[in-house]
């Protein structure tokens, strides 16, 4: 099923979906492969195409990953840098962030129920890179996988699927690598993306900062 959204509609309504994920409706590998065909059309540094996409459908493996995610999320909740810190927010911004927190809590509690978990990966590791090359290496490597993963998420939106970019499991990346047979020393995981059909398909553009507060021309 395709929603026949315009490119602008897909770009402006692809939300981080958590509470509206349908845990009971199966997701076929046919639709996953269809989305992935578009994902691998994304740009990649030096055309290396060092991307890999691991899809976890096994119930026991999903449950273990979800357990690790929930434990890390519980610790993150207490940090000053977490989304739970509402200091300085008021009015509509605070209300929006409270909804984000509520939905993030919901996902942490229900990750194991998501029918498909996607882990985008990229060849090479940058966690040992230091000095002036660290920024270049990070930009190059992440720039070779994140556009592809986002393209997957956009293609999923057009097909009635919801996704959300999460990274909490990366604190247990080695254990997840061992669980899934990912060669940890050679391949880096960059996210954990739940994939499920959505309850309803009508999503709206989100409230964002005023454009002039983030737009810079010729100088900061």
Q: What's the structural blueprint in terms of helices and strands?
A:
Elements: H1 7-13, H2 29-39, E1 51-56, H3 59-76, H4 91-110, E2 116-123, H5 133-142, H6 146-158, E3 161-163, H7 173-180, E4 187-189, E5 193-197
Antiparallel strand pairs: 1-2, 2-4, 2-5, 3-5
Helix pairs in contact: 2-6, 3-4
Description:
The mean pLDDT is 92. With 220 residues, the chain is an alpha+beta fold. The chain has seven helices and five strands; from the N terminus they run H-H-E-H-H-E-H-H-E-H-E-E. 40% of the residues lie in helices and 11% in strands. Strands 1, 2, 3, 4 and 5 form a five-stranded antiparallel sheet that branches. It is globular and about 40 Å long. The chain has a single domain (7-205), classed as NADH Oxidase (3-Layer(aba) Sandwich), CATH 3.40.109. Helix 2 packs across helix 6 (146-158) and helix 3 packs antiparallel against helix 4 (91-110). The termini are far apart.
